[in-house]
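> run fold Cyclic-phosphate processing Receiver domain-containing protein
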Amino acid sequence: MENVQKYNIFLDDVRPCPSGYILVETVAECIAMIRSKKLVSHLSLDHDLGSYAKNGFEVVLHLLEHKIFPDCITIHSANAVGGKRMYDRLIEAKRSGQVPSYVKIFHQPLPIGFAL
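> ok
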């Protein structure tokens, strides 16, 4: 049996990247990384991304539109409204069958100064 490597991706422009993750700081970088790596084990998303026009919700929409489903998606945004919107959209998609049942979805806000 072939050993397949899966990747962990951390989208954030402020928090330090946890060990074992690839850091991406923009929506464009995140989408490019997801497309290039194909097999994503854990995708951890922030909502607010500094001065960039797009936010983490755009990544959620991209995942759904292109049927790309990591094993686990965590919304770690400290933005209560934006983070909840991302989480709610993913949960709604999972309930409707758009997201496979094996995908774990969490909403665990992290403070800006968070470091593992």
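The helical segments are 27-37, 56-66, 80-95.
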